[in-house]
Write a structure and sequence with these properties.
heterodimer, A: 558 residues, alpha+beta, 7-stranded mixed β-sheet, 6-stranded antiparallel β-sheet, 21 strands, 24% helix, 24% strand, globular, B: mainly alpha
Chain lengths: 558, 216
């Protein structure tokens, strides 16, 4: 059996930068990925494959989660929680289980965190019931890697002056923005009239061919879909293909790691996995990297007990799985009738590429100074089956059918463009959001599934509501009709981090500042699990950047 | 299946619809709601020989190689499914009808999918029995034997009940898939649904060997 220098578990945005950097440096790297290796030639604009069947994720019968939802308070005023397996609820917490992970299916809205996000406690003070802490590193330590991601993954955009712009070490993005939709002009005019500062959202999408990848072909079906051109900066297209090309990186798809084995000294020695033929296999390596996305990373560590780690790897102080965060926020939108705004708004393909961070930090008479967030603007998702299904009831919730239904479909599909907004704000870490192993429910390999308690902090909704109101005001000013918006404490499963905080104190964190597990010298975690607080932007750029940072630590330690 | 049996007619329409509802456990209705309001539920489907199309309704049907023959679709329960689909999505001069979309063939593809949720499958199939029961109580005949106006009246009754409304809502979802999914799956022939709703599909579109059952 071959001995590897590094074994990486998980091939997404957390694992791939490590695979690329270490294989480029000449180390023997193996990547174990649970899902299949799908490539550009497997991705089509097929709503059934993308979004209506379990193609890129496991069947919930085979592999599931147990979700503990808030269920009111008991007589003593204590929270009650109801646990439901997702095979019963139909609620799916998987993202992309394929080579490259869920980065294959992201929209690629790429925002950096801001320096204040690294010291949320110092900047904004404690909030009762929230486990807010400062990060053990500052923005300046991550900045070089944000910059590195711009060229390695491919980020397109243009730097714009903004009151809350984070510092950057290069003057501009390496790729110009992708082609933009006519509605973006209307957004700019409106926002400028409102004294706001619309940002051209940086995108992990190449506007032109680069390094063996084709440029964006503007099909208009990006988020939730695998990219057929390679323009989207998935971990697979942007990084892993190049890692494999070094001849030093082997990717084993359909390899489900069951457990990491550790020795009497506490070091990890082997990864045990089940291969595509359902045979048990073993990988030996000098060093192991776990990057299975926050929930599954916590699950794997908890399952990996050993003589020095009776409660699971890195869990001797009981911290693994705690302080899981999602992204708080909400969503809404407004309609722009073609009769009033012109047929040009029908265009499908170009991107809106606009965001608002004017309220990333809020100074409000009533609320005082508090951390706000990001508003991203985008067109309604183009999937027509989902849309038709959402139109089958009338205002009184009565089922429509026959000619009345057909007329409604015709009218709604052809009447107006819809501009949506998404609010991203901090999902405050609390004692009510965490991962453990379920005591009863097992997956098809008879290992316990992850149980996730998904409580949120009420403060999250206050901030989300504030931002949602601002977004609605912009839509109103633009002249939109049927403006709506809602905020929710429901966790978005595709925006998840935390669970293995990094920090300086082993009693309150799982990883040290280099993302090495405190008491396991040859084990690193490089997905979004390390984040002690989430910030108010999508996580992917930060995950990529941090994984490049940790890759350098690993390279110098090997 | 006992779908061709003559239904019991000694019950009123209201009794039948109530009985239908009480036959569904709360757990089942909760699950069916989630399956259909969130996303659908299966991933592996038809494999086998191509269909040779002989009737106009099948003319553009090339996507789903599930060995369906015209003769099969002329048997129950497909005759009744086709009839109720045609009421739900009629030929009214406003876009394609269920028949134009090959909707019954598409539904067969769904019901024969190997990992279709068995409860959902059973619920869809059982619905025919209740529909025929209501048709018989109201008009003394199975649904497929009624004239279009009578069929409309039956659907109206069924839609007004909880279980019946749920059943029709499930059928509608699969009509929407036949209307708007890629033609490679057997519905939406030549993109007729997309054209009607002025919907611009994405590209590249899936070739036959890259339909979702062949992936993953």
């Amino acid at each position: 059996m071959k001995d590897y220098d590094v074994c990486i578990i998980g091939s997404g945005a957390g694992g791939a930068p490590v695979a690329l950097e270490l294989s480029r440096a000449g180390y023997e790297v193996v990547v174990l990925e649970k899902g299949p290796w799908l490539k550009e030639t497997d991705f089509y604009k097929d709503e059934l494959a993308c979004c209506r069947r379990s193609v890129y994720t496991p069947s919930l019968k085979d592999e599931q989660h147990v979700i503990e939802d808030y269920d009111g308070k008991d007589a003593q005023g204590k929270y009650k929680w109801t646990a439901t397996p997702t095979s019963e609820s139909g609620s799916d917490f998987w993202n992309g289980n394929v080579v490259g992970g869920s980065s294959n299916f992201m929209s690629g809205f790429f925002y950096r965190l801001k320096p204040q996000d690294f010291r949320l406690l110092s900047e904004f003070g404690p909030i009762k019931g929230a486990n807010i802490v400062d990060w053990p590193i500052g923005y300046d330590e991550l900045e070089p890697y944000y910059t590195k991601v711009e060229s390695e993954v491919g980020v397109s955009g243009v730097v714009m002056p903004h009151p809350f712009a984070e510092p950057r070490s290069t003057p501009n993005f390496p790729f110009p923005p992708t082609v933009e939709h006519p509605i973006s002009q209307l957004i700019d005019q409106t926002c400028q009239a409102m004294q706001l500062h619309p940002i051209r959202t940086p995108r992990a999408v190449l506007p032109q061919a680069h390094a063996g990848r084709r440029g964006c072909e503007y099909s208009g079906y990006c988020g939730s879909y695998g990219c057929s051109s390679g323009a989207k900066g998935s971990a697979r297209a942007a990084l892993l293909d190049r890692a494999v090309a070094t001849g030093k990186c082997q990717i084993i798809p359909r390899a489900k790691v069951q457990r990491l084995v550790s020795d009497a000294k506490g070091k990890v020695t082997q990864a045990l996995y089940v291969d595509a033929a359902q045979q048990e296999q073993t990988i030996r390596a000098k060093l192991f990297v776990v990057a299975c996305q926050a929930i599954e990373t916590a699950r794997l560590l908890l399952q990996s007990t050993g003589p020095k780690h009776p409660r699971g790897l890195g869990n001797n102080t009981g911290q693994v799985g705690r302080n899981l965060v999602f992204s708080a926020g909400g969503t809404g939108g407004g309609e722009f009738p073609y009769a009033k705004f012109g047929e040009a708004l029908k265009a499908r393909g170009p991107f809106v590429n606009r965001g608002l961070q004017d309220w990333y930090f809020i100074q409000d008479k009533k609320l005082g100074r508090l951390k706000g967030g990001t508003i991203d603007l985008l067109l309604r998702h183009p999937n027509p089956i989902a849309r038709a299904n959402s139109l089958k009831r009338d205002e009184d919730d009565k089922l429509l059918w026959g000619s009345a239904l057909k007329q409604k479909l015709k009218t709604e599909f052809t009447r107006a463009q819809s501009l949506r907004f998404e609010v991203f704000n901090d999902w405050l870490p609390t004692d009510d959001c965490f991962v453990t192993l379920d005591g009863a429910v097992k997956d098809k390999w008879q290992t316990p599934v992850a149980k996730i308690r998904v409580g949120y902090h009420d403060h999250d909704l206050v901030v989300a509501e504030y931002l949602s109101d601002k977004a609605k005001a912009v839509l109103r000013q633009m002249g939109a009709e049927n403006i709506s918006g809602s905020v929710s404490g429901s966790p978005p499963p595709n925006l998840v981090a935390g669970g293995c905080r990094f920090g300086n104190d082993p009693n309150t964190s799982v990883l040290d500042k280099t993302c090495r597990v405190h008491d396991v010298p040859n084990l690193f975690v490089t997905d979004g699990s390390f984040m002690p607080t989430g910030g108010s932007v999508p996580y992917t750029w930060t995950i990529y950047a941090n994984a490049f940072r940790v890759a350098e630590v690993i390279r110098t330690s090997l | 299946m006992t779908l061709c049996n003559k239904p019991q007619t000694n019950q009123t329409v209201e009794q039948l619809l109530r009985e239908w509802e009480t036959s569904l456990s709360p757990e089942l209705t909760a699950k069916l709601t989630l399956l259909h309001e969130r996303r659908a539920f299966m991933s592996a489907v038809c494999k086998g020989a191509a269909v040779i199309s002989v009737l106009p309704i099948m003319a553009a049907l090339q996507g789903c190689e599930n060995k369906t023959t015209i003769e099969q679709l002329q048997q129950q329960p497909w005759i009744t499914f086709a009839a109720v689909q045609q009421q739900l999505f009629p030929a009214d001069g406003n876009g394609p009808s269920a028949r134009d979309l090959n909707a019954v063939h598409y539904l067969k593809f769904v019901l024969e999918a190997t990992d279709t949720d068995p409860d959902d499958k059973q619920f869809l199939l059982d619905g025919i029995k209740w529909l025929d029961g209501v048709a018989d109580a109201q008009h003394g005949q199975h649904f497929s034997k009624l004239n279009p106006l009578q069929q409309q009246q039956v659907v109206e009754k069924v839609a007004g009940s909880e279980a019946g409304g749920r059943w029709l809502s499930h059928l509608l979802l699969y009509i929407f898939e036949a209307l708007l999914a890629d033609p490679v799956y057997g519905g939406n022939p030549q993109g007729v649904g997309w054209q009607w709703l002025e919907h611009q599909p994405g590209f590249p579109q899936p070739p036959r060997n890259k339909r979702y059952p062949e992936l993953g």
